[in-house]
Amino acid sequence: MQSPPLSKGAATRARIMDLAYDRIIDKGFAATSIEELVEAGSITKSGFFYHFKDKNDLARQLIDRFVEQDEALLDSLESRARSLHEDPLHSYLIFLKLTAEVMDEYMKVRPGCIVAAIVIQDSAFDAGVRQRGVEIVLNWRRRYQAWLEEIAAVHPPKAPVDLETVADQMTVIVEGGILLSKGLRDPHQAGRHILFYRETIRLLFS
């Protein structure tokens, strides 16, 4: 079932956000001006301020959209993985394989991450935007750690490990993989390293 078409106003806001996302990923938030977004989006400056109070409001809306899409994607991948195997370890391994495949495709289209941009360029954002970036990273930790604790209860790890660190490693690999993919002009770097993490998980718990 197709989504209903966006209204003219919603379509304009989405176009501005798409332009802003690409420019923030490419050259940073501070270097991205409202003027260039207005020009690229073929709108007036008053049109921009109709949709966004200021640049930080634009950043907040970008983050909210990212979170909505990211959580929907991760929920979908987790649901699919768990439907394919009831054992938490095997379902997590399936989830990682699916995630690697998604990252391979994503990096061909949009090589970057708005969360990483916010964390790295935190001085360019207001306190509310910076805190939102922290919350997103912590939510990733909670998601992966809960699954790892479920795994460890059934498959005790072969060596003493801090499951919080193992959970954070997924974020480190995804974000680091994005950096490698962009730096080496190779969209498969992120997926490749997720698969290496997958093998590490398999050896640690099987």
Q: Would you write up a description of this structure?
A:
The chain is an all-alpha fold. The chain folds into two domains: 1-52, Orthogonal Bundle (Arc Repressor Mutant, subunit A); 55-205, Orthogonal Bundle (Tetracycline Repressor, domain 2), CATH 1.10.357.10. It is 77% helix and 0% strand. The chain has nine helices and no strands. The chain has helices spanning 8-27, 34-40, 45-51, 55-84, 88-109, 114-120, 127-154, 163-183, 189-205. Helix 8 (163-183) runs antiparallel to helix 9 (189-205). It is elongated, with a radius of gyration of 19 Å. The chain starts with 7 loop residues before the first helix and ends with a helix. The model has no long low-confidence stretch (mean pLDDT 91).
Characterize this entry briefly:
The protein is mainly α and 206 residues long.
Parts with pLDDT < 50 across at least 5 consecutive residues: none
C-alpha termini separation: 41 Å
CATH second-level architecture of the largest domain: Orthogonal Bundle
Order of helices and strands: HHHHHHHHH
Q: Helix count, per DSSP?
A: 9
Form type: elongated
Query: What's the CATH class label of the largest domain?
Result: Mainly Alpha
Number-wise, the strands total 0
Count of folded domains = 2
CATH domain fold name of the largest domain: Tetracycline Repressor, domain 2
Beta strand %? under 5%
Helix content: over 70%
The averaged pLDDT comes out at: 91
- What is the CATH superfamily classification of the largest domain? Tetracycline Repressor, domain 2
> Which class do the helix and strand fractions yield?
mainly alpha
Report the radius of gyration as a whole number of Å. 19 Å
Largest sheet: none
